[in-house]
Each structure stands twice: as structure tokens, then as C-alpha cells.
Design a protein that fits this description.
alpha/beta; 6-stranded mixed β-sheet; 17 helices; 15 strands; 17% strand
Amino acid sequence: MVNAPLARPTALVRMADAGDLYISWRWTHDLAATGIGIVPRAQLTAAITALNDALPDAGAAPPAHALTDGAFASYRSELALAELLSRTFLPYGLAQQLYELYRRGIRPHLRIQPSPRVAQVPWELLAPDPDVRLVEIADLSLLAPASVVHAAGRPARAWADSRHLPVVGVLDPRVPGFRADSALGSVLGRMTTDAPVAGMVAGYLAQGRWRPEVADPVEAFRRTDMDREWLGAALRAGASRLLYVGHVTAAAPATGQSEDAQLHLACGAGTVGFAPPVRAHRPLSAKDLLLGGYGLPGTDGPPDADTAHTSGRERWPIPSRVALIACESGGDLRFGEAFGLATAMVHGGAETVTTGRWTLPTDLAFHRIGGAAPTSHPLQDAVRAIDAAHEQDDAVLAHGDWQRECLAAWRALRTVEHSPVLWGAFATISTARTGDVGSA
């Protein structure tokens, strides 16, 4: 299909939980082209239950379930799940409009604002037909909360103005108090110069665009100096992008406190912050990123007065594009009031944020549990692809192109390393309107 990026019709799709699920949509180039769909509570519950049963760590299933006998473990069972999700969440009227555009060779942009209950639905995988997935007939992104995008004083940073600046990379930092094989240990494993992500870093080093500056690409991984102060200094020095690969601890939706989501850097327990220490480590919480030093206990006077009166935006000026490649890094969308890590990035100035919807299997898990070929590197390949997408003018289009390539490989090879249990987890939140017809 030939898609003209500068003439791409856009639909805004919004959802609301009210017992049943209500789905509305409108096309920005034709205000009369609107529609509403309703998903009855029983049908909604059945679809969400089926999805949860397929996800890594879902319910009481062991971690191996998703890679061995869950719906994502085989092409046939994954397609059945995708068809169920499509019957549930793709309204007939919208599907008909998409089909008409498809017949004309046009791939529109769907900007989706899911309700909390359906925040983990992989919209890209929806199968309105056994041979067609939604990502093949539309580019998809998620809408950030309007209250955050239009917040007073939000320093929106445009990619065109900053693309020449360095990439700040935080790759698998060492979390104090946790061994490499522990809960907050290494996600990328032992790094070598011929590894895919090491090659990625080498490319940026050759351009002089990588921070931290290192002599050997391998030195960019498993560092012990990448704490919140280092991150703040690197961002304040100027950055086009932030690439984080590591651990996120999402807040439980039942708490109602999305701001408690935590990013794990190399911060020691003595670091000042809102999150409680975990062993020898204090995580960087979304609340830290939102508030900076405001309201921290013990920082209302000397010698910490400067910290106490520094906002999160000032301490960590977020660049135009951010990739948080970590388990459920976009978990704040599961809350009625989203103030988690993804939202904090938008609040701090990002216009594009790529996050994970659910727990991400590591390369080691694919090898040991899923039986994937030992030469495969699904997670590292995903890091490289997302990184490459964030370098393009239209990151949403590039992200979709990558997922379409992944889907083609899944159809053709049907081996676990190509399963959307990994690549289907990633979604891009975008406030930009590059290539769209009309405006939001």
C-alpha cells in the first residue's frame, strides 16, 4: 500500500468506562464523520479476561505461560485472540470507514484514548479479517491526557528544533543492592561488542551524539553512575532524545496513585526523593519528575533550599522524544487520573513517548523458556527498532512500519521470537500531528 504521509486522514477514537464501554470517533478533516459504539459489560469482561490470560505474569499464571502455552505462544491462538479483540473493540461503523480507505490505498492515523480498563489492549493486533490486522490498514498512536498536553507552562519541545542534539542513553543501569540475576537485575544480559544494541551505540558514538561519552560501546551498559543527578545534568546540557532500557515498577491500579510508578536508576538509598528506599536503592518516581523538590520532607530550608524550590521540569527537562523500554512503563494509562511516568514525560516537554503496555520478556526468557534460537535477540532488536523510529521525522509512521515488519515475520515463520508478546506490547503516545490532515 502506498501511503502519502502528508495527506493522512486522522480519526480521534475515545473510550469511556460506564459499566459498558462506550467508544466514539470523529475524523478531523470531516466533522460530520462521527460514530459511537457500545461494548456490553459481559462482552468487555470476556475479552479483557482472555487478554489477561495471555499476558506475561497475568493472574496466577507462571512467567513461562506467555511463552509456552498462552495465546501469544502460537500464531493460531494469537490470531484467535486478535479476532476476539477486534469483534469486541472495533465498531462496525469505524471498520467500514477504514475498509473504504483501504480500498483507495489510504492508510489513516488512528489516535486512540483508551479508558483505564482497556489500556493494555494491543490495538495494532486487532484482526477484522483473518488476513488483515489493524496495524496494516492504519497507523496508530495513543492520545496523552488533554489536561497534561495543554497544561499551563508545559514546555513542548519540537523534534525539528532539537534533532541535532545528543541522545541520552540509560541502558540497563546497575540498581544498587540487586545482583544481575535478581528482580531488578540485568535486562539485556552480558554485553559484547557484536551485540545489536552495542552496534547501535557505536553508530551514535561515531556521530558524536551519544551521552555518556564512552571509549567503547560496551561501557555504555550496566553503569553505576547513572543516578537522577547524572540524568538531570545530561538532560540540562541539551538532548534530542532519551532512551531508557531497564526496570519500571508500575503502581497498582487499585491504589489510585499512578504517580507512585518508579523508574530504577543507579540511585542509592540515601538519595532524596518521594519513593521509599528498596534495599540499597531509592527509585525515581513519577512524583519526583512532576514535582522536583517541592514538598519533599526535610527540603524546606538550608542546606537543601535549592532542591526544595526546583520543579521537576527544571531538574529534568524532558527532550522531544522518549523511549521507556521497560515492563508496563505506560501503566499510568490504566488509571482514571494518569500521572505516571509516561504522563510525566509529556508534562516535562516530550511530544513522543514510546512505552510498554505489559511485562516484557527478556532475550534470556525467550531462549530458556520459549526455546527461541540462541542467535535471536528479540528484545535487543526491539530496542534498535524503536530507537530508529524515534530518529525519523514521523515516529508514529516509522513505529508502525516496524510492527508491520514484525507481523509479516510472525505470519511467515510463526516462531516464538517473532511473537507479538514482545513487539505488540509497545505503544507510542504522541502530541505531534506530523503528516495528518486536519488538527485535533
